[in-house]
Amino acid sequence: MVADSHAVVSDLLMGGNGQALVAVEGLTKRFPVSKSLFRQASSFIHAVEDVSFSLAPGESLGLVGESGCGKTTVGKLLVKLIEPTSGQISFRFPSPDAGSGEAVDASTIRSADLRAFRRQAQMIFQDPYESMNPRRTIYDTIAEPLAVQGVGHLTDRVDRVTEILTQVGLTPAGSFLFRHPHELSGGQRQRVAIARALVIGPSFVVADEPTSMLDVSSRTGIMTLMQNLAQGLGISYLYITHDLAVARYMCHRIAVMYLGKIVEMAETEELLGNPLHPYTRALLSAVPVPDPTYRRDRPDIRGDLTLPINPPPRCRFYDRCPVATDHCRDNPHPPMEEHGPGHWVACYEA
Amino acid sequence: MTTSTHTPVLQVIDLSLRYQTRQGEVQAVEGVSFELQQGQSLGLVGESGCGKTSVATSLMRLLPENARLTRGQVRLNGTDLLELDDEEMRSYRWRRIAMVFQAAMNSLDPVHRVGQQIIEAIEAHGMETTVSDARERVARLFRMVGLDPQLMDRYPHEFSGGMRQRAVIAMALSCDPDLIIADEPTTALDVIVQDRILRELKLVQQELRMGMIYISHDIGVVAEVTDRIGVMYAGRLVELGDTADVFRSPMHPYTAALMSSFPSVHGERLPLQGLAGEPPNLIDPPSGCPFHPRCQYADEVCRTEFPERSIHEDHWAACWHPLEVTVTGDGSRDGCG
């Protein structure tokens, strides 16, 4: 029965038109918390719990939430850096070498297939200072995926790296090829990270807070660049961020996560203009407004964020919710329900 | 909020700071001057490397070995802190001028109880003589920053990031300083926690009538907590004015560019303008106005001469071609609540 409801949800999430590039159903990841080295874990952090969504080709979905809500874990699961506890991730890549448009179940992908999978699904990390080998040149860093994938000969690779450097705005490309990361600014490093992710032409990219470590001026540049590349190359992003304002500019749809659950998902302007989940409302009203004449409402939320270690089955937001009722306490976590075209909310009181 | 006849809490006059590095001398702060009245808060904004943290550490005289203050005065209630010897400065620091550092929540000693660490600070500065008085004071400080006084005897690891940051703010307030400097105190925190801390901080600052310098790269935060705002670029203060005025009509092209590059969740989704180029290398800063290589209005005079401002106005910009000041308040968005 549970599996059925997932299938229904994922059907509805697609809006019934076209095929999803990525479809996620009932994705769950639990990390064991061991008290001692020799004892089996009795507690689990429910990092991601029964998460379902899908992404159309060329679409960008924002995954927004506070630190510890599981958004990065979802990202890592999607590019197979970690394996899920349960749930399904299926891809339908456009390129022939990844299954000629057939849906690929990510859990069945093994070694050789994994290499083909990585051509299609890449990740951009948060910290451009940590994500690059300081001893390698920019050329080596960007060309490595080509070498791993066995794409082209050496001369082709130089051409390809030069081309992608130009595309990410590091010009003249020749002057960057043999520099080292420490010679570049944070914004330039993040451009290199983007170039490395895109050099093998993926159709799906998980971007984990790619601008949160950057200064204002380089941040706008990176955001614009990523949008242009997505449009030009037809890339879908899963854009992970804690910043709703950034998500507003980068994403077609936004999914809000709280303690491992997606609690609300809708088209970006619909979600920001008509937030239905009490957590989304609190998150939205906590964002400072760069306008001294604007008086924000105080975010309506109680208590502090906790870790989801063996959480009770009721609504994850119950303890902090300003509108919780006895019904919320006595029933399982509310299912995602559609409250308008494509506007999904998991709340009994919405 | 505007100019008053009172002696200001803080007068910074022509402050200049250099760092010696292997690559050369970095002109980190250049000719920065501003005043702060009692109970007033000033925001310092700008990109990383613009000198805002260097200004703060200069005021505290907590500078690294390779730093040299080449010019200027820092007058706290009339006394030039830069003239004090080390011993005198130590009695001023925390007692008269206190600072909350970036990610200060990680600066609590993990093996001592949080309350005890604050009591030690209080005792070291001779604020209270008995332990029970000191405990009472810590309890009051805890309440002030929105922490339950019963948490006093807990250890830092039992606190969340937000709670630790509140404890650090309580510690900074423990000796009733005349001036508090907050350097990105909420940058590492989630928005909901940030919102709470900002509200507490502003409330306490107004209650105690302290001067506050609030340093942040987030102009949204600065818009909400400060009365005045100073925009820094390449070690220089390039615009200063009442927060409402600067936001309504920025005069310096850099200020305007900075503001238009911030995405907002409220109101209309305006296109992000952004800022082309990168901040200059301060070992060899550009001639004339340091912003000229990135400025669309730059001409010959901008390339050769720094635009010294001539008069002390409430709202000024160091620019040869300041943007028009809009007089009407039509631009303000409707707020609620």
Write the layout of secondary structure elements.
The complex is a heterodimer of chains A (350) and B (337).
Chain A: H1 2-13, E1 22-33, E2 43-55, E3 60-64, H2 71-78, E4 86-91, E5 104-105, H3 111-120, E6 121-124, H4 138-149, H5 154-167, H6 186-198, E7 204-208, H7 216-233, E8 236-241, H8 244-250, E9 253-258, E10 261-267, H9 268-273, H10 278-285, H11 326-330, E11 337-338, E12 344-345
Chain B: E1 10-21, E2 24-36, E3 41-45, H1 52-60, E4 67-76, E5 79-80, H2 86-92, E6 97-100, H3 114-124, H4 131-144, H5 161-173, E7 179-183, H6 191-207, E8 211-216, H7 219-225, E9 228-233, E10 236-242, H8 243-248, H9 253-260, H10 300-304, E11 316-317
Helix pairs in contact in B: 3-4, 4-5, 5-6
Quick overview:
The complex is a heterodimer of chains A (350) and B (337). With 350 residues, chain A is of the alpha/beta class.
Give a verbal description of the structure.
The complex is a heterodimer of chains A (350) and B (337). Chain A has a single domain, classed as P-loop containing nucleotide triphosphate hydrolases (Rossmann fold, 3-Layer(aba) Sandwich). Helix content of chain A is 32%, strand content 20%. Chain A contains 11 helices and 12 strands. In chain A, the strands form 2 sheets. An 8-stranded mixed beta sheet of chain A has the order 6-7-8-3-9-10-12-11, sandwiched between helices. Chain A has a 4-stranded antiparallel beta sheet with strand order 2-1-4-5. Mean pLDDT of chain A is 88; it is low at 1-17. Chain B is an alpha/beta fold. Chain B has helices at residues 52-60, 86-92, 114-124, 131-144, 161-173, 191-207, 219-225, 243-248, 253-260, 300-304; strands at 10-21, 24-36, 41-45, 67-76, 79-80, 97-100, 179-183, 211-216, 228-233, 236-242, 316-317. In chain B, the strands form 2 sheets. Chain B has a 7-stranded mixed beta sheet, sandwiched between helices. Chain B has a 4-stranded antiparallel beta sheet with strand order 2-1-4-5, covered by helices on one side. The longest helix of chain B has 17 residues, at 191-207. The chains are: A alpha/beta (350), B alpha/beta (337). At the A-B interface, helix 7, helix 8 and helix 10 of A face helix 6, helix 7, helix 8 and helix 9 of B.
